[in-house]
Amino acid sequence: MIPLFVPLHGLGGGKDLPIPAPLAIAGGTAALIVSFCVLILAWRRPRYEPAGPGLRRRWLDRFDSDGFRWTLRLLGLVAAGYAAIPLLWGDDVRINPALGVFYVLVWVGIVPASLLFGRVVAAVSPLRTINLLLVRVTGGEPEKGVLRYPERWGYWPAAIGLFAFVWQELVNPDQTYLDSVRLWLAGYAAAMLIGSAVFGDVWFERADPFEVYSNLLAKLSPWGRDQHGRLVVRTPLANLATTVPRPGLVAVVAVLFGSTAFDSYRDTARWARFSQGGFASWLEDKPFRGALAWLAGDTVLVNALALLLFCLVIGVSFTVAARLTAVEGDVRRRDLPNRLAHSVIPIIVGYMTAHYLSYFVEQGQITITQLSDPLTRGDDWLGTGDWSVNIWLTLHPTVLASIKVLAVVLGHVLGVIAAHDRALTLLPRRHQVVGQLGLLVIMVAYTATGLYLLFGG
Amino acid sequence: MSSRPLRIVSTGLAAGALLLSAACGSAETEKSGGTEVQATPVTPSTSETGSPSPSATPDDSGAKTVEVHFTEDSVEPLGKVVKLDVGQKLVLDIDAEVPGEMHVHSTPEQEIAYPAGESQAEIVIDRPGVVEVESHTLDKLVLQLEVR
Question: In b/e form, how buried is each residue of A48-62, taking b as 16+ CB within 10 angstroms?
Fold first, then answer.
């Protein structure tokens, strides 16, 4: 049976206008100039390494109290329980809030929440709490699983989980059907609960795509930990430098960054023409058409491969650029990409802001009004049902475009500074300028490409 | 001692139940939150004869016209960018071999059902942004409206 309604794209209607050319060019030029200023004029000694103690205050310990932690866990359980109502019992209609909760409030909301409050997903994750309660019931310890988590896996499980999410969000043709979201979340919950039973709760820190994403973003928040694990306040850049490099970190940032770039590119009319027929007709008179014919008719597969390609291009280009330097002493060249990967996080935040700002603000409001009627019967449980949606951002496209360019450039500047500071610790003195060039060039390329995609491809 | 295997069995069961409940989700009927429009068929007597209009032509009233041609498995144009002003009327001159449906991804969403043969539909977008017009029947992007 053919369903009555299949939107090709996720939620929401209109999208942002492309940013005006002068703004894009100004942004790109600023990024270029700032980059070289940082390289040539900025400090010659690392400022953020070794990590300082941070600012300690007594009141900070309150956030580590059992009472506060359990309050947050309870809030997480209640919110997840509420969101489960429309997800499990709601009708598969456009005004069902489950989709908005999943794709907008959770996925996009992770960014502002983590930047403001730190490791929010770890604090409220209902699966973590369920695992904790299961452990209590069976009398074990949450840290201990049956097996030790292999350190060489690092963040690789999270990179795979994040790819599974962006595939669901951007490629899966059933993305806006409740069944597909149910299936995805069931698979996610199963992987988290079984993994944490086997490896202990370190599994969440390495494999939960949302928690790993949130923890990385939290490194740009003021909330950090000192060497005794106590809560401290740091400047975001100093905090960022405390990111622990683990295997797979480059893969995680590559999936986050590559998928957002793909999302921008996918929205262009050019990609629509290419993936929906242009590719097939281009292939028609090529000698190798037989070898690629299986691809030509399958838009979903073309999109999936393009998504993978975007992530691979980011991952490979960053790895190559980071390794393009001489090293000395106990620094190993193959460790460089993961030890520099934290510098991509601000770039991701800048680009995510540009890509999702109006979507988050406006679709988020729509979701909150819809949440008041979770079973789509015309209820108003939360009293938010009659809120009107403020579309100020959409009505002021020039302001919106300026904010977007500013976010991208600011992310770029922070990224370049973070990479510079780390390079001063890692690279031998005589290679410090030349050794940073590769990384600088790739960052300018990322920012220019990002602006180009926002400009409309 | 026996707690760990017990825990794995219990989480395994819980996970299995979750997966099962997701897989068994029933196919539900859909209601849409948007508006549905029926394209008006153009009978030969009322259709204007004369100059074949080039695509996206503004007429006297400021409305733009775009011709859309559907065959059974293709659509022309494919992914064409049309620039509009806020509030400007876009007239779609539809010529279809089989009836079908288009979706206008504006806020709120609009749906246009068209019959076989020639028909006309109008789109007005009331706020700036990029709005996609997709063929629901073929799952293809027909137009991308840049509204300023």
Answer: beebbebeeeeeeee
Residue A391's closest chain B neighbor by CA? Answer: B127
Question: Which of helix, strand or coil describes residue B122?
Answer: strand
C-alpha–C-alpha distance, residues A299 and A305, integer Å = 10
Which of B1, B11, B73, B98 would best serve as a mutation to test chain A binding (most A beta carbons within 10 A)?
Answer: B11
- Residue A285 is predicted with a pLDDT of 78
CB count in 10 Å sphere of residue B36: 11
List the single residue in B15, B23, B28 with the smallest CB-CB distance to A193.
B15
CA torsion angle A261 A351 A123 A190 (round to 10): 0
Report yes or no: B80 and B72 within 8 Å, Cβ to Cβ.
no
B74 interaction partners in chain A (CB closer than 8 Å): 277
Residue A344 pLDDT greater than 50, yes or no: yes
Q: How much is the average pLDDT of A349-376? A: 94
Residue range B111-135, pLDDT digits in tens: 899 999 999 999 999 999 999 999 9
Which residues of chain B neighbour A92 with C-beta distances below 8 Å? Answer: 27-30
Q: Which 8-state DSSP code applies to residue A101? A: I
- Cα separation, B48 vs B26, whole angstroms: 49
- Measured at the CA of B61, the angle between CA B57 and CA B62, to 5 degrees, comes to 50
Task: Please state, in angstroms and rounded to a whole number, the distance separating the CA atoms of residues A7 and B140.
Answer: 10
Q: Which residue of B has its CA nearest to A90?
A: B28
Q: Do A135 and B27 touch (CB under 8 A)?
A: no
What does the buried/exposed string (b/e) look like for A232-257 if buried means 16 or more CB atoms within 10 Å of the residue's CB?
Answer: bebebbbbbbbbebbbbbbbbbbbbb
All residues of chain B having their beta carbon less than 8 Å from the beta carbon of residue A140 are 3-4, 7
Cβ contact (<8 Å) for B11 and A394? no
Task: Report phi then psi at B35, rounded to 5.
Answer: -110, 150
* Angle between the N-to-C axes of helices A249-266 and A299-323, in degrees from 0 to 180, rounded to the nearest 10: 130
Distance of CA B133 to the CA centre of its chain: 5
Closest CA in chain B for residue A272: B79
Does pLDDT of A205 surpass 50? yes
Tell me, yes or no, if the pTM score tops 0.90: no
pLDDT of residue B27: 39
Query: Where does the pLDDT of residue B11 fall: very low under 50, low under 70, confident under 90, or very high at 90 and above?
Result: low
> Predicted confidence band at B52 (pLDDT cuts at 50, 70, 90)?
very low
pLDDT of B62: 84
pLDDT given at position A241 = 95
Give the closest residue to A361 by CA, choosing from A405, A392, A404, A330: A392
Contact between B141 and A269 using a beta-carbon 8 Å cutoff? yes
Token digits of residue B44: 């030969």
Q: Do B78 and A276 touch (CB under 8 A)?
A: yes
- Which residue reads 């209640």 in tokens? A78
Three-class secondary structure assignment of A398-411: HHHHHHHHHHHHHH
List all residues 6 or more positions away from A68 whose beta carbon is below 8 Å from its beta carbon.
A62
Give the ipTM of the model, two decimals please.
Answer: 0.79
User: Are B19 and A187 inside 8 Å of each other by CB?
Assistant: yes
